[in-house]
Amino acid sequence: xxxxxAFWPDQASSVALEVDLLYIFIIVVTVATSLAVYGAxxxxxxxxxxxxxxxxxxxxxxxxxxxxxxxxxxxxxxxxMFAWGxxxxxxxxxxxxEAMNFNVVGKQWMWKVQHxxxxxxxxxxxxxxxxxxxxxxxxxxxxHSFFIPAFRTKMDAVPGRYTISWFEPTKPGEYHIFCAxxxxxxxxxxxxxxxxxxxxxYEQWLKTGSxxxxxxxxxxxxxxxxxxxxxxxxxxxxxxxLMAPMLAGVFGSQVTLQGGEIITADENYLRESxxxxxxxxxxxxxxxxxxxxxxxxxxxxxxxxxxxxxxSKSEAGAPGAAAAASSxxxxxxxxxxxxxxxxxxxxxxxxxxxxxxxxxxxxxPRPTEQPAPAAGDQH
Amino acid sequence: xxxxxxxxxxxxxxxxxxxxxxxxxxxxxxxxxLTLDHKRxxxxxxxxxSIFFLMGAAFAMLVRLELMTPGGDLLTSETxxxxxxxxxxxxxxxxxxxAIPAILxxxxxxxxxxxxxxxxxxxxxxxxxxxxxxxxLALTAGIFGGVDTGWTFYTPYSSVYSNSNVILAGLGAxxxxxxxxxxxxxxxxxxxxxxxxGMTWFRLPLFIWAHYATxxxxxxxxxxxxITLLLMxxxxxxxxxxxNPNLGGDPVLFQHMFWFYxxxxxxxxxxxxxxxxxxxVAFVARKRVFGYSFVAFSSLGIAIIGFFVWGHHMYVxxxxxxxxxxxxxxxxxxxxxxxxKTFNWTATLYKGSITYxxxxxxxxxxxxxxxxxxxxxxxxxxxxxxxxxxxxxxVVAHFHYIxxxxxxxxxxxxxxxWWPKITGRLYPEAFGKISALLVFFGFNLTFxxxxxxxxxxxxxxxHTYPPEFQIFNVMSTAGATILGVGYLLxxxxxxxxxxxxxxxxxxxWRAKGLEWTIQSPPKTGxxxxxxIVHEEPxxxxxxxxxxx
Lengths: 379, 548
Fold this sequence. Notes:
The structure holds 2 protein chains of 2 kinds. By secondary structure, chain A is α+β, with helices and mostly antiparallel strands. Chain A contains 10 helices and 12 strands. Helix content of chain A is 42%, strand content 16%. In chain A, helix 8 packs antiparallel against helix 9 (344-363). Chain B has a single domain, classed as Cytochrome c oxidase-like, subunit I domain (Cytochrome C Oxidase, Chain A), CATH 1.20.210.10. Chain B is mainly α. In chain B, 66% of the residues lie in helices and 0% in strands.
């Protein structure tokens, strides 16, 4: 808990106990080893104290079996630590599929958080108890690091790329958020608190908000769809796949680049394609897209990404239209809840998101990498 | 301090300072500033590193004073950040890296292998000038506005966002690196080509093995930090896009390049300290070092494996999960040679004839602190655990235990042990012991609480912190005060001994090694006749024959 003196940090996430167990294991092993060494030094120093100025002790060269023993045994012990450590690390690096995605943007000197419902807050993070939470983290300027000691999680916020961290809160309460990577003058003020609430209270909190939280009208997907129009992405990416690759289904798919390299279209690739489009050109296309570096904020990039991802999710069953529609419905509900007296925004959002789906079906028959060969045929 | 045997040097009556020695071979400033004598160059380094050490320590005291309270009541955040940056830059590049090699190494390597000087005396002097140029640049940066990037100069903060004197400080560290490269090169050639007849590789004192391994790292790794700092300076000065993502660069690339040098640099700091301790352990036990070849080869093992562990500084930097796992494995492997050394030093004491003179206090002090520094590295190597501990005070405590508790304790020990050889005078024994004890207790009080507050989550480089962490910080600051006294004391009594200390004679400790067979202080040119080596290192069985 914040402000309470303790010798041991709170264990407030599903991994905290596991991390502490490894910590305790290494403490036990190293304290035992150190005490053995200290004990031997103390005993030898006392027992073999020089008795006369001319005393010459027996000269001992060494002992091969002993050397082998004290090389191999420590090696075995540290390999146990290693295996335990990487197992934990693997668990810490893989968010469960059902995790809710929160976007976190660090900037000098604050943390900006956006909830899946679109709600935003600064230097605070409200989360429901028992729900796995995935954080997609980036930075607007320098390196930062999002650190919650009570959860035993930490991940750098790196400008120009996305990093992932996740946790499942297991104990209600308020805990520190620290920036752990030195980021300039006010580094030590880049702190905040995470508030773990039971899910019902979290729902309540989402509706009523708090002094610090900025009420938003849109989910990241809807905001992303709106940005997609505003930035005129749709003029090339949502027409017919002649000018630019169609984006439905692109997230998570294998993309063939000029030169034949095949990469997976993950968050970092998509982000790069927006801010630095010349870096990786999809096979069959001209490098004619302008850069959006500096024109789209990190928050907006995360929203665009959410929208592009939503185009892929919809793919399996319904065409994009249904997905977009459903996402709009979802938002409307959230908005209805958050803002009783603001019916207008959803109306604005709906038509704008209505556009892309109307176009998407054109590319629906073969949503995978169809545009590329098609464009190739044109030449 | 228990019953102490009367030091035998008091029994030897009326020793006189040798008439001709390197210290009185010319008194003019020119005779010092243009000297080619490795011993005088060692003294030049000793004076300049001591001055840097006092400055670095003063910055540390300001940091500790500020951290006594959770709020920022002594310094502004901006000043605080500059203080810990200057502390780090000065201590790392201008104290820890040169301390043992450039002072004790310069002085002792030719003496220990029976040579008249290092292979390239002019290069040796040049490297001191390059070092001073680097130091001047860094201090200029400090005086004209300071630097606030931390000694790590992480991009893009350093290359774009910081408003401080990054370029000057970076060029200072860049320049000092060349001094380190030149010294390493000089030592490698010296050890290869200038050993006296009979001084085979396996008759070399372990101090030489340790310096050989260190020199390899200096020559191979330092150019990388030079490139890295230069690229950072070019990005900052000319806007070349290398690390800044807005210019198409990659900020994490900087970390890879920086730690490719800076992790091996930790071994540049501790390996020579291990060499010092090997010599001193043999002396205090009056015995061969147990498992000589294992200790020698573990130095090389550390130097080589140490090149492949840099990514353990970057587990949460966005480097690949699998890279993190591989770096974790190699990091655990590099722990083994250090463990081997520690076990062998301990075994050397077994059935020895242990003297209770002041060098013992430094040896035990070193072992006590180095073991803690070493085992706490295992916590940080365990990648899943390091996610929590990375960039907290646990890391701060760990590396201070190695670099200050280990290296500076070894340096102080070595300085005391060879002081009679260097100056021809004895320091007051009792003060040597008091200083070792003060440093040991002060150090533990300063840094042990930082392990606890680190696991609680207190991040590094915080100017202000939550109040629940205060008690640990108060302990740290109290400890730092004691530590400061422990470090200041030797400055006083060693300077005192230059004039008033008893005359040492060639071998006041009755220690083995070529350096103890010649007068103290040695004369310019060291040996009247090239010595011929007939025996193994640390052959204490023949001690009586060599009696002073």
